[in-house]
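Look over both lines before class:
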Amino acid sequence: MKFNLLMQLQVANSTFNRSNHCLRQSVYAEDGLTLLEVIVSLALTLILIGGLLNLMLLGINNVSQGGGRTAACIYASSLLEEMKARPELLAGVVGPGQISADSMPFLPCPPPGIEAQIEYKPLAGTQHLYIVNVKVLTTGGNHQWEESVVGVVPVP
């Protein structure tokens, strides 16, 4: 009987320890994420993705503006080079002045949305050299800008 009572006490103690251990384990165990953790991680992810998208859009905008400005600089350089190659374009020009590139018979056509103004003045101390400033301006769009190319052109 004593042995039987001792056996029942050990079995009861073992059952108590197992159930107590399971209770402690389920209270302190982290089997998954809480709703708050999920919401915070989603908010951080959305903020980071929004920042990256903003940077990408800014980069695309800058690339498109850079392409337009590059085309304008190439156009201004080609006008200046054509004036150097064909000095008769400025023949009859006397004194400083300003003309539109559209009013002269240049070979290159302007890129869309761009116009060129040509300012010229005689180079001091010479008779047949002019300082020519080709200004290229935007005629529309969201961003207004201006590029300029300066050179010396012989005039017959």
Helices lie at 2-28, 35-85. The CA atoms of residues 123 and 140 lie 34 Å apart.
